[in-house]
Amino acid sequence: MDNEQPGFFKRVWVILKKPSAKYSLIAIASTSFVAGIIFWGGFNTAMEMTNTLEFCTTCHEMRDTVYQEYKETIHYSNRTGVRAICSDCHVPKDWVHKMIRKSKASFEVWGKITGSIDTKEKFEAKRMELAGHEWERMKESNSRECRNCHNFDAMSAELQKQTPYRKHMKAKEEGKTCIDCHKGIAHQLPKEYEDPDE
Are both 55 and 123 inside the same structural domain? Predict the structure, then answer.
């Protein structure tokens, strides 16, 4: 058995060094490996660039509407100095869900291209539809992005005011998720929105 292994590895090495038309398999594999690293690095860099606040506010549809609303919220300015940006709430952190979300977001660019929301009036006319899609996405994911920072189990009865603490614990018992109660936390609610609890 020991005598066979050097022979096996030698045969594999000969095959790998053998040229395929013009280049050896080692050269092709090495080049492919390096090209893969460069592609992955470029792809990942591009993904991260599209997750910045600066990128999100490059189009006036976002800059002139929801960004202005967000700047008036606790997610933008607060006593602790922790700021949640667009991607913290609207883009999942894990790779699979992030790619799914980015794919869907590429279709949302259609609104920019076609001009369906290119004025404040057009945006307001579609606000309920747009908000509904986002609320549905958050509900389906159990408010995954909210839970990157907020967690029922981390809430302190001593540090949180009693009324919100009781509501949070009741929501936990009932299996509710953040978006069930916190619509409009970072953006204005659509005029057509009717709170089911009222």
Answer: yes
